[in-house]
Structures are given as C-alpha cells and as structure tokens.
Amino acid sequence: MSVEKSLAHLGFIGMGVMGKNLALNLADNGYNLAVFDLDSGKVNDAIAQDRAENPKGEPRIQGCSSYTELLAHTVSPRIIFVSVPAGDPVDHVCHKLIDAGISADDIVVDTGNSLWTDTRDREKNYAGSFIFFSTAVSGGEEGARFGPALMPSGDPYAWTRLRPVLESIAAKVDTATGLPIERREPGNPVKEGEPCAAYIGDSGSGHYVKMVHNGIEYADMQLICEVYHLMRHAMSMTPAEIAAVFRDWNSGPLHSYLIEISAEVLDEVDQETGLPLVDIILDKAGQKGTGLWTAVSSLQIGTPAPTITNAVFARALSTLKDVRLEASKLLPGPAGNGITASRAEMVEQLHDALYCAKICAYAQGFQLMQMAAKEHGWNLNFSSIAKIWRAGCIIRAVFLQPIADAFERNPNLHSLLMDPFFAEQVGQYQSNWRSVVAQAVLAGIPAGAISSALAYYDSYRTEVLPANLLQGQRDFFGAHTFERVDRQDGKYHVKWSEPGRPMVKV
Ligand code: 6PG
To answer: What fold does the segment set 10-203 form as a domain?
Structure first.
C-alpha cells in the first residue's frame, strides 16, 4: 500500500528517539503511519531512516506538517500514538488534537512514562472528545525498535482495537522456555512466541505497573552497584575482573539484561585516557522521577518498599559530590578493610547476597502493586505482569519466570517470600547474605540496598517486633492507645500521670 495514495493505518505524534523507533517497529509489522512532530527535522529523520531500511518497498512513513493534516491522513476511526515527554506536553497534544477535530471514537495512545494519576485523570477528562488509552513502554531505544515490553491500560474496547497492533510490536518469549526470542534486524520482526503485552486494567493501572517496574529497576541497578563497590574498593578488584565475575553470574539465576550490560560497561576502556571507562564516569546519578514516585506511593499506601526507596536515596546521596569530597577528609571510617573471606569465598557470598536482596526487591514491588490494586479497585494479574517483564524491558531476567510461576500457583500470594520456591532459596543462601552485610559494615562501604533488603526480610519473618514498645511510647506521650496481645477487645490507654497508672479501655 502506498502511503502517498491512501490513508495511513495509524497516526504518530512525537518523533524523538522513542517515538521514531516505535514508529519503525510499527512499520516493520505492516502498519503505515502518518507522523507529526513540532520539529520537522525529526519527521524528516524518521522518513529518511524508513527509506534507508526499506529502500525497495513503498514508503511506510508519511510526514505531516500539522495536527489537522495528521488527522486527515489517518484512517478512521483513528488510532494515534503519542510519544512526548510526560506531563504538560501530553495534554498539549490532546488539546491540539481536539482543536484539529479528532472524533469521539478515535483513540489516543500515550506511550510515555506518565504519572499514573495523570493517566487516570486523562481517561476521564477526554472521554467524549476521544478515547484516551495508554501503553507504558519499557526497553529503551533498542526495545522500542525491535520489541519492547508493553503495559497497556484504559478503555477495554480500545484494547480490543489495539491488541493486534501492540502484540505485533512487543517483545516475544519462547513459549516452551520462557526465554526472550532475540532478533534485532530492521524489516524482520519476531512473529512467533508469546507477546510481552497484556491488558493491565483501567484507571492508569498500566502506568502504575510501569512505575513499579522502574522502582524495581532502580533497586536492581543499585544492588549491582553495591556489589561492584565492594569488589572494587574492599577487594581491590579491577573493573575487568568484576566484569568477568558478572559474565559468569549471567549464566545462573542472576542472568539478566542489567547484569549483562553492567559487565559491558565495566569492560569498556576510555579511548582518551586508556583508563577503564567506569573510573572516569563522574559518580553522580541522574533520575527522571519514576523511582521516586514508586517510593512515594509505597509510603502513601503504607506498603514498605525499603530496598526501592533506598535505591532512590542512594542516587540522591551520590549527587552530593562536593559535600562528600569534603566529608571524606573529615569523617573517619573503620581502620581495616573489613573483608574476612578469601576472594573466591567473597565472590560467592556476593552472588548469594545479590540474589537474596533481589528477591526482596521484587517481593516489595509486587506487594506494592497488590496493595495499590486493592486500594484502587484494579484486578491485576501478577503472573501476567511477571510474564510481560520476561523480555523487552530493562529488568528482563530469567528470574521473572519463577515469579510468574509463583503467582500462577497462588494468585493471592501475600509476598514472594511466602512462595515455597523463594522461601527455600532465601533460606538456603541467607548466611552468605548476612556475611556480606556484616563485612560491608566493617569495611565502611555503604550497601544500603543490600542491607535494607536483609532488614526487610528479618522484619517480615519476625513474630514479635519492637512495635510493642513503640505503642507504649505513643500512649505515654500522646494517649494514642494500644491493643493487648491476650485479648482482642479494642483499644487501651494507661493513665501514665495518675497514681497507680490505671489502664482503661477506650
Ligand atoms: C525503561 C526505562 C525507561 C528509562 C527510565 C530511566 O523501562 O525502558 O525504565 O523508562 O530509561 O525512565 O529512568 P531514570 O532516568 O530515572 O534512571
């Protein structure tokens, strides 16, 4: 089909890095597109890439110079993808589309990293003007081009129209093995296998799930960084030696995209200085906000996600470079390096610590989604979410399959830690985890994510926590009352200032 002579199957607004790659992915899967960007250079770039990748075929991407032209060149009822920065730009595009005459049964699909409450509000606010739908996308530039993980949510009718489109462009896993089917050639998309795209729910739930994905991503990355830090500074290993260890780990239960790319980064040499690249990268972490949103949500809902939150804190602490530089001269650390194990033993201990802490981080993320689902009335399928994350996304890992299996066995599992498989795994490897935390503390190397995960695990498995004393303190200074362990008949208060301190039932 020639796009010049007939209407495009889909409209696409925003030809930035993610938009252009998603558009080319859609084109590879047989969809012609009418595209628009405020920057016409980006539209020309997308058209040029389409021509370069598809020199003999008909052009699959048609450039438009306005919202009106885009609507005029897209087949009705329209599906219009939007890839613009989260926040006001999304509403700007929506209002421009309304001004340009979009119809009530047209669908606008936000593919950005929007805050889930914005998405929920947009689903309501734009009803009547058009159907606002969203599909969160994970996998960066490569994923967008050759198969991302997709977390679609919104109007169920819109999903029936979008399903074939989204399933075609999504990453695929081999149904028999659960492993990603890798193919990264333009014009030759993966057609077989299970697509990493499943309907999440309505009211912004897809963006909530993507937010938690990113929170887990923060934790996963920070855990790897802490292990690297211990190897580099407490064990004096070179980046290349650490890369070799990560490569070795990548053939076991820690096999994941993040371990794989960490090894690649550590092996890279700076061409200018000849030094390991990692040694010349400034240790100040950036963040765009999704990890922070996850941490805030966990605090608001009251579902602890300390490893995720710790990863956000670690990024914030890293940015205090000038202060840290000064403090490093003033504040003493421990005398020795704290490491008592041999290098081989320590590497094994670090492996097990990373594995156990990772289980806790995922347990926190999934529990957060469970509690949010209860609070917001979403019917989330956790096995399906774990399956979506098996390929295409940043946290893709073999580890997602046992998580999917755990929720398949018990969809109401309170925590991954309560699943027999994960309970057994943590039980088996916990002593090495404890040993790593102890040695990190003695070495004075910060390992907040690894140790917060251990504290979380120990709190979760402890029958009596010191919250009894805490409740006593609250009752003492604020008459905040407490419950008794020996009977469940309501709240009590001790009149602390009265003689004999009588206890009254409130
Ligand atoms: C993904 C990534 C993607 C992006 C992060 C980076 O799933 O593809 O998570 O969404 O790379 O938002 O986030 P920070 O800049 O906050 O690290």
So the answer is: Rossmann fold (3.40.50)
